[in-house]
Amino acid sequence: MKNSFDEKILDEAKDWITANQSVVLATVIQTWGSSPRAVGSRMIVNDKGDFSGSVSGGCVETAVVRECLGLLKENKACKKIEFRVSNESAWEIGLACGGEIAIFLEQIN
Amino acid sequence: MKKQLLNEIIEKKRNKIEFAIVTNLDNGKSYIFEKDKSVDKNIEEHKDKISFYFDKKKNGIIEGTNIFVENYIRPIKVFIVGAVHIAQYLVNFVKSLNFEISIIDPRGYFASEQRFPDIRIINKWPKEALEENKLDQNTALIALTHDPKIDDPALQYAIKNNFFYIGALGSKKTHENRRKRLKEAGFKDEEIKRIYGPIGIKLGGRSAPEIALSIIAQLVSETYKRL
Q1: Which of these, A59, A72, A57, lies nearest to A25 by C-alpha position?
Q2: Could you tell me the CA-to-CA distances from A59 to A90, A98, B27, B48 in Å, in that order?
Q3: How far apart are CA B110 and CA B60, in angstroms?
Q4: B25 to A29: CB separation less than 8 angstroms, yes or no
Q5: What is the three-class DSSP state of A97?
Q6: I need a surface site. Which of A17, A27, B83, B127 has the fewest CB within 10 A?
Q7: Tell me, what DSSP letter sits at residue A60?
C-alpha cells in the first residue's frame, strides 16, 4: 500500500499541541511477517495517557502508551522499540498474528 | 519532531504538495524532502536513495542506514456530478478517506451550501466545470443525475481524459441507452466499457446511504488497482 489514505494523525497532534498538551508520536518504521499495520502507521499519546491512531490491531497499544509516558517522564527526545512473539512480555502484549514490528517514539516539542 | 516542522507538514498537506518526511532514527531529527528542491545538508549523502523511495512512494528505513522515509501522496480528485440525495451520503462517507471531493451541478437549488456544507460546489455545466480544472488520469468521476444532458458531457470528458474511475448511476436499461448515445457520439465500445454502469459493487441495498456505500467501495477498490 502506498499510504494514499492519510489518517490525519499529525493534524490531530497539532490540535493537541495547540491545547498545550505534551505529545509523543509513535510510528511503525519496520515490519516482519504478518503485522496488522503498515509501515508509516501512526499513533499519538499525551501526558495523561490518552491516545489516538494505531500501530497494531490493538495488540501492543497499551505497551506503547506506557513507553510514551516513560519517554516524557525521562524527557528523552526519541526511542526505538520492538515487539515480537518471542518477547518476554508476550503473554501480555505480544502480537497474536506472529508478526514483528519496530516502532519509533519521538516527542513533538 | 519539532513543532515548527509539524506545522510545515500540515501546511504542505493542506496545499496538496507531495513530499516525504525523512527522519534520522539515531537522533530523531526530521527533514522535509521535496522533488527538485534543495536537500538539507544533514541528509544530503542519502539524497539518491531518498529520491528513489519518493519516486516509488515507498515507506521504510533505507537499507544499511538509520534513515526513515515516509511519503505523503496528494489526495485523489473525485468529481460528483449531481448534488442529489446519494451525493450527501457519499460526502459523509468520504470524510475519513483521502479524496478531494467537488460537486458539479448546474441546478442551483440542488447544489446549495446548506445541503453540502464545507464541500466545494461548482454551479456550472459539467463540461465547463471539468475543463477549467485541467484534470488527468488521477481523477474519478461519479455521475449521479441520470439526466443525459448533465451526465453525458461529463462522461465524455472523463473517457477522453482517461480518468481512472468512471461510474454512472442508473438501471441496466438506463445504462444501455447511455451506451447507445455514446456510441452515436463516436465513442468505441472499449471506451464505453470503462464506465461502471450500473455504478457500485453489488451489496443488495437500494437506499441512498447503501448505494453511496457501494459506490465508495468500488471507488476505493479501483484506487488500489491503480496504485
Answers
A1: A72
A2: 10, 11, 27, 36
A3: 46
A4: yes
A5: coil
A6: B127
A7: S
Strands B67-72 and B60-61: antiparallel
ipTM of the complex: 0.86
For residue B168, which amino acid is it?
A: A
- Does B95 reach chain A within 8 Å, measured CB to CB? no
**Residue A3 domain flag:** no
Partners of residue A32 in chain B, C-beta under 8 Å: none
Q: How far is B115 from chain A (nearest CA, A)?
A: 25
Domains and CATH numbers, chain B: 3-72 (no CATH), 76-226 (3.40.50.720)
Residue A27 lies in a domain: yes
Residue of A nearest to B56 (CA): A2
pLDDT values of chain B reduced to their tens digit, one per residue, 227 residues: 999 999 999 999 888 889 999 999 999 999 999 998 999 999 999 999 999 999 988 999 999 999 999 999 888 899 999 999 999 999 998 878 888 999 999 998 888 888 898 899 999 999 999 999 888 888 999 999 989 999 999 999 999 999 999 999 999 999 999 999 999 999 999 999 999 999 999 999 899 999 999 999 999 999 888 65
In a domain, A67, yes or no: yes
Distance from CA of A86 to the nearest CA of B (A): 23
Per DSSP, the three-state class of B29 is coil
